[in-house]
Each structure stands twice: as structure tokens, then as C-alpha cells.
Amino acid sequence: MDKLFVIAVGGTGMRCLEAFTHLCAIGMFDSKEIELLTLDTDQANGNKGRVEKLIQLYNRIKSGGTPNANTFFSSKLNLYRFYTNYSGQGRENYKNISKLNSGSTEQQKRNQLISDLFLDNESVQEFDLSHGYRAQTHLGSMLMYHGIIEAARNIVRGTDVKVQERELDEFVTKLELAGQDARVFIFGSIFGGTGASSIPIIPKALQDFIRIRSKGAASIDFSKAKFGSTLLTEYFTFKKPNDKQKASKENSVIADASYFPLNSQAALQFYQSDPTVQRCYKMLYHIGWPVESKPVDTGSSQTVTGGATQENTSHITELLAACAAYDFFTRTNGLDVDKTEYVYKAVDFNNNAFSFSIHDFVGNGNKAGERFANKIGAFFSLAHISLTVNNAANGDAGIKGFITRCQEQKITQYNTITDAECVEINDYFKAFAYTFESARFTPGWLYQVRSTVAPGTFIFDSKAFPDSLSELKKLDVGTIFLDEKNHWPKGGILANRYDTFIKKLINLGPEEEQQVNTTKEKFLAHIYNAITHSQGFHLI
Amino acid sequence: MESITAYTVSVIITLVILFIAAIIANLIKFEGGSKPKDPKIRKLWFWILCLVNPVLIFLLGFFVFMPDGNVRVVKNYIAALSIGTVAGFFLYILLGFILSRLFTNGKLGHWF
Is A8 helix (H, G, I), strand (E, B) or coil? Predict the structure, then answer.
């Protein structure tokens, strides 16, 4: 069985990883242990912080557990974090980090000349690198490669090895051990800075990392290693930086969203013609948003260059990127190619809106679309039961209500699940669906994704996304799907859908083939079975 | 003979009331929320019908099934009816308890 590795680079890469983590939570990667690496220049990036918190929450929910099948949180995730350090003295910008002013006068002169040939002297060589590469991909590729190689050299030297370098070392060790069984998928955009800079060089940088660390004894064979990535073109925009903001040297270069389409085109041409990219990557998934992009920084007066404030909302293209990773990890053919294969598909576009069906995410072979809808629908229903019916969104018991219900029905095997563990599951659902913060509605990941498609269709009925307390109270959690045949059964004239669902919950339980071990895993598998039976997808 | 009638009335009414209690328990829907009230409502209905049962046995036995006959026959019937009423009360609880244990994970499980 192939070993799975995911590398998320830059702000967009982090949001794709967020979508990927949610796919793991809904149970799309059964019986898998997945190694995740976040790779950024911007240690404090809001999107990076958000996804790392989410994965840590996932792991707390999964604590002590193992990979399972046909249940929620079915895969085991191992998170590693690496960031290039641009915060110390002498590391703030290109000029300092490349030590242009060291060596003899003649060397300094030559260094400066070669730098000036590729990088603008006044701006590109002097902007603050701690907020990423700001769409300067030529600089970014060099510095990201340098960052990874520097980490390998520090590890070989064995002195002053940073925490992030050790984490990168652990990740690469697992990758090296997996050998030709490794499948590596890289998330990042090709229109911005850090992701666009890194995607072309990561396979080569990891190969050289292994070579340096092993002192030439080991390497990655690109004819056997399976690398895949997304070609994610522009899908959001933000405010154009004004002259006032660009006045300081550290902000002299700020990514300008109006150039994103041009950046995307240039990157696509480069990827098509670059022999290293063509040799390293087996699959590239072409994902884009061929209509007007929505702004992500409506509340800010300046262009957000990075840092904790860069916490953009989620978009359906990121879910599609995560689905591309699913395709790459689950495909049984097409990976023994010598040159990159491109994968793409189109979605219906009518009345100025996209219409996504269940078959537009993971395909429709072997009922994959139905399986995806079944799992995401079950998770969304459970999120609504926890947040809406059991009112966790407003601080009430949430998932604990299910344990109370089981106790009422004399199903006592889940009594050992603690209140703190229930709060963690509730918190995950808040990140997934929605919550209320100081009585204000805050959309979670799925609500944000759906809002990027509205008024187009998206698997679920629009009524499944209420955003006011009064509307939420009216929600019937058994009717979230667009297709009525997947609504929970009514159960007769005097019953209702929730009643028949609880009857199913009572009569079912976790099954042996789900390979669940801990009490929490059994509990989640039990609920998964009750909801998926209620949804009535025919998966065989 | 009149004793048998009284006891039969008690048993039949007890069984009918128990059946009604089971129907009511099943008609009460499972509620969502962190503190669902449905278990308590089922239990409440069970005990209300537990009190209704002896009253109904006695009233129906007295006004509907009272045999025509001499004072001794009536006295014997009343005595049997009284015993049947008390027995019906306990029989209801006993059968309710057994049913509650048989369907311990279902709605009837809320009776005990």
C-alpha cells in the first residue's frame, strides 16, 4: 500500500490543506496514515495558524486511535511544520540573507551585478521576506530551495538545529523510507508568491535534502517517485496597494492581484516548458475559477501582505484541490508516466453561476460521487445535530447530547467519553460548519465554500445553510440534500425524521470491518452508521 | 363464577391499559437537544395510566360487569373485584417492568 504525503505551501496551500483535513474528517481517506507538512516563509500567517490548529484539533479527537474504515475521522494525520527563517538579524531580506556585502570588494561587486541582473535592486532585493515572496516567484524559488538546503546542512552539522528543521527532517525521513511507495501531493497556488515559487523546486529540493543529509548515499528517483500537484490559477482578489503603503523599503514590493491572471499564464507556460517540472511531477491538476474573482479583504483599508491578519475565507476551488489530492492518492493507474499528465474537468455554468453536482468532486467511477456525498452529508448532518439541534453553536452540550441520549436508551458503553472530548468534537464542527461568536453568526468552512458557489447549486439544499437563530431552529436535519431520495425517512404519519433516525441509532452499532478501537472511535462509527443508513445512498 | 368474571375484567383492562401505555410511549417522539424531555414524558404517562388502571377496573367492574344475583353473589363479586383491582395495579407494574426490560434500549425502556 502506498504511503501518502501532503505538502502545503503558502496561504492558498494552507487553505487547500484545510479542505483536505475536512475530507479526512468526513472519512474520505479510509485506513490511511497521512504525513502532512506545512511549508511557509510566514510563520505567523493566519491561514497557516488556522490549519495547524485544525489538524491539532483533529489529532486530539483521534488521540490514541488508529486508521479506520467507513467512519468519521477515519485517517490518522501526522503534522510537521517547516518555515524558512527570515526573522533573525541578517535574514530580513535578500540582500542580507545572500550576504551580498561579504567577501572581497571584487566578489561583492560581482555578487551585486549578478543579483541586479535578475532582481530589482531597490525593491525586490530589500523587501521584508517574513510575509512571503509577494508574487516574486523568481526570488522565491531560489530562497525556498536555499531554505530547505540550509536545513539539510544544519542537520548534517548537528549544531543549532531549529525545531522546524527537525520536523522537516522527520518528514523527509518518512518520505525516504517509503521509497517508491511514496505518493506526494503538493498544495499551492501558481499565481501568488510562496506556493508559486515552491511548487517547481520542492521535488528537487527534497531530493537534494536527502542527498546532503546522507552525504550522497541516498536520493529520490524521480522515475519511480510519485509527485502530484495542483495548477491552481487565480480565484480571489484583494485591494491594490497604494503608494503610501509601498513607501517603506520593507513594503516596497506588495503582490498586486490585478497581475494574478498574468502570473497564472506565465506560470502555466513555465510549467509546460520546464523539463524539471515535467520530469518530477506525474500529475498536475488544472484548477481555476474562470469568472470574476471575489475580493477577500473587504474589511481592511490596506493590502494585507501576510501575518496573522491574512486569514482569507475558504473557496470551493480549495475543496476541488483537496479532491485532486484524493484522486491522486486513490488512482490505480496513470502514475507510471515519464512526463507530466494534466487532469482537468468542467462544471456546468448556467445563469451566471456554477452548478456542482455530487459527481463534480471526486468523479463518478465506482459510485465515488455517491460515496463522497454520503460522507460529507453525514458529517454535515452530524454537525447540525451537534450545533443546531443540541445547540453547541451557542455553548450548549452539542455532541454530549448524543451520549445523554444513549444513556437514556441504556446504551452505556460511551459513558467514559469525557466532557472535554465532547467539546473538542463540537469545536471541530464549529470550524466545519458555523458558530456564534458574541451572538454574531460566524460561517465555518463549509458555509464559506458554499457561499462562493451561491446562487449556483452545491450538493445540499440552500435551506441547509441557515444563518439566523430563528431559521436554524426550523431546520430539519434530515432534509439537507438537494435530492429528496437522500432525505431521512419520515417514519409514518405520527413520527418525524429525527425520531426514525434515533430508532436507527438504537438498533445499530459499530461494526467489525470499521476497525474501530477506542471508545470515541466506536461512538463516532455508531453515529456514522445511523446517519448513512438514514440517507439511503445505494453504494453497491 | 362471579370471582372469575372480576379477575378476568381486571386482567383484560390491565392488558388494555398497558397496551395503551405502550402506544403512547411510541407516539412520543425522540427529541433532540441536550436535555430531551421525552423519557420523562413517557415515564409520566406510564404512571398516570398505572393510577387510571385500578380506577377503571373498579368502575367498569362495578357499573358494567356487576352480576345480577343475591347479596352473597354481589358481596363475593365485590370482594373479588377489590382483590382484582389491587392485583391489576401490581400486574400493570410487573408487566410494565418486564416489557421495559425486554425493550430496554427502546422507548418502553424509559418506564423504569
Answer: strand
